[in-house]
């Protein structure tokens, strides 16, 4: 449990202070080991804070919630792995 809290804390703190890949690594680690709502929360917060200001067109990838989409895909993709090897 302490490992999960530590990884989630690093993920949340690195949204504001770290490079973009640190929250992504934390999301991968959390979703590979647990069914982690923290990974989705990190993705949502990352998109809310760093999403474009609306100056781009709607079709631009800057306005897409990329980290939220990645978090959903990670949680969905790692589910069979968790079920097979961890439980």
List keywords for this structure.
87 residues; mainly alpha
Structural commentary:
This protein is mainly α and 87 residues long. It has one domain (2-85). 71% of the residues lie in helices and 0% in strands. It is built from five helices and no strands. The protein has helices spanning 2-17, 21-33, 37-50, 66-77, 79-85. α2 packs antiparallel against α3 (37-50) and α3 packs antiparallel against α4 (66-77). It is flat and about 40 Å long. The relative contact order is 0.16. The model has no long low-confidence stretch (mean pLDDT 86).
* Number of β-strand runs: 0
Q: How many domains make up the 3D coordinates?
A: 1
Helix content: over 70%
Low-confidence stretches: none
Derived from helix and strand composition plus strand pairing, the structural class reads: mainly alpha
Instruction: Give a short account of the largest sheet.
Output: none
- Estimate the strand proportion: under 5%
Distance between the termini: 16 Å
- Helical segment tally? 5
**Rg measurement, Å:** 14 Å
N-to-C series of helices and strands = HHHHH
Mean pLDDT metric: 86
Tell me the overall shape.
flat
